[in-house]
Amino acid sequence: MQEAIIKRAKELLADGTVNRVVGWKAGDFAYDVTPAVFTSAEELDKDFLYNDFCAPNLSKYLIKESRKEGKVLVFLKPCDSYSFNQLLKEHRILRDNVYVIAIPCRGKVDIGTVRDSGIKGITDMECDGETLTIHTLYGDKTMSHADSLGDKCKTCKTKKHAACFDEMIGEEGEPNNDGKRFEMVEKLEAMTSEERFNFWRNELSKCIRCNACRNVCPACSCENCVFDNPASGIQQRAAVTSFEENMFHLIRAFHVAGRCTDCGECTRVCPQNIPLHLLNRKYIKDINEFYGEYQAGENFDERAPLNAYTFTDCEPDVVYKRGGNA
Amino acid sequence: MYKVSADRIDELFAKIAAARTLYLPVDQNDGRAAYKEWSQGTKMSSQLNTVRSAKGFFFPQTTNLCDFNLKDKEIEVVDIRDESEDFVVFGVRACDARSFTILDKVFLAEPVDSYYATRREHGTVVTMACTEPEETCFCSVFGIDATAPEGDASCWCEGGDLYIRANTEKGEQFVSLISDMLTECDDTAVKAQQERVKDILSKLPFANVSTDYFEKNTLLDVFNSEKWAKLSESCLACGTCTFVCPTCQCYDIKDFDTGHGIKRYRTWDSCMYADFTKMAAANSRNTQMQRFRQRFMHKLVYFPDNNNGEYGCVGCGRCLVRCPISMNIVKVMKSFGEE
Prior knowledge:
Distance between the termini of chain A: 45 Å
Number of domains of chain B: 2
Order of helices and strands of chain B: EHEEEEEHHEEEHEHHHHHEEHHH
Number of helices of chain B: 12
Structural class of chain A: alpha/beta
Strand content of chain A: 5-15%
Number of strands of chain A: 9
Low-confidence stretches of chain B: none
Number of strands of chain B: 12
Distance between the termini of chain B: 47 Å
Shape of chain B: globular
Largest interface: A-B, 44 and 55 residues
Mean pLDDT of chain B: 95
Strand order of the largest sheet of chain B: 3-2-6-7-8-9-1-10
Radius of gyration of chain A: 21 Å
Strand content of chain B: 15-25%
Largest sheet of chain B: 8 strands, mixed
Largest sheet of chain A: 6 strands, mixed
Oligomer: heterodimer
Low-confidence stretches of chain A: none
């Protein structure tokens, strides 16, 4: 797959269709992949990577890249394509300046998941089909590919791209309807409000206000976030009370509700391992239940349920009907 | 040197905790380690390091500095600083232990930061030698010996025994708290462990990362290098590296309006943030390249220039593990070293 991708990128650079490529760059170990811009065939040969470790979603980089001189080539995995399409819909990416190639994904290995399983000193990893071989300072270990996935991939919503690409390399996949995606949300819903409050207080109390979740989030594309704006009156770093930290995440989740495509980057990048995507998934699940199945980023022309009124929309008293435990 | 059977570690912790508040690395419910206060039943983590460094014991993420209370038309200034209690931080690694001496150079230089100084006075640092370093470790690059950690007292776990050595007066006091559990011993077992671990340390992937470039080139050569643009191009501008870093020490002072007064507090800040250098007139760093460059210039150039060549990094590897885009100080150093 990587060879085919690099070959096509070189062709598009050579024939002048694009003048640069946004992709993933190899690091010192198998897992420390960095998003990067490549401008020559030599750079692509040297550092371009596409394998089981290329988790970063590249779509948000296009906000800036599409405003630079010339056309840029980007490779989008299925989940990244929804973020891209949603950003197009919000007029944040200049479509004419981007050439999109859809590429398949079978779920990305998450170094955090591998480390948290107790494997130390990881110097290299290779994945041969279903088994991950992990070379460490303390000998070789193995792990199944399925076990090594991050949260975002363990509950993958679809392997089918949003219709926003110019061409595709590899085979198109299918939506995943195994129902696992909302399992944890359902567990939280089944809790008493006190249990649920304690669950979130415990998780959110770990927050160090690094803003990685916000900065990586394709739905968070405000030019000046309210939390960074001194004039807003709520500009803050870590605040005097930890409760405010909790509010930061709730406000963010509300702000991206209906636009969040569930790409899972927030949880992937969280240094404190907070399952932030569960907040977003709760809203996605509610939107599905209240307004009918909706996948943000799937259709360019469709109006979002929170931006449109129909006679079949639920009334606000749905909250009471749900017994206050919604 | 003293020793005690590792089987008696709960008893040992109980004894320490009876005299001082005791903090140690503990596995949280997600399996990752964080410093927590010890209570009966708490188990020490066996992981190499905590997600957050130990700097928070002396330089917490937020510190309440003072309150302003409004009484009619008078403003009352209240010193709300809590009197620090004596505490012990147990199980600190060599990298974090060295970070305290780096922070000391900032906070204990004139004018002394009294909030930091009080915490330093009341805290006893008990370190633990590393036996299973990670691939992300590079403390040896900065002259740190993970097998002989600094601190008020140092410990080694070897062959079912815990070995303890006091390094300072505070360390002696710590040892005296638990002296009836300890027996004197020689350092044969510790030496053997050190030999074994040093062999691993010498083979770590980053054991030989070089700082030469920063010593041989001028400040402006590094500052004006074209490499910064490429290195910083996909930086998300989050503060993860800064906040997990044991030596990052920048902070902001803010006022929180409680509705009937003001709480003035300080909070960790990050040079990666767009408003870090925002001033009344303007912002002196307008691009992420400039902000990114600042962080590494501080650690690799400005800090050593002002502190007899000591770098502002201890090679703990936390930023390598946690950066969302896997860009880090080692990649920066290697990139410059390639020239």
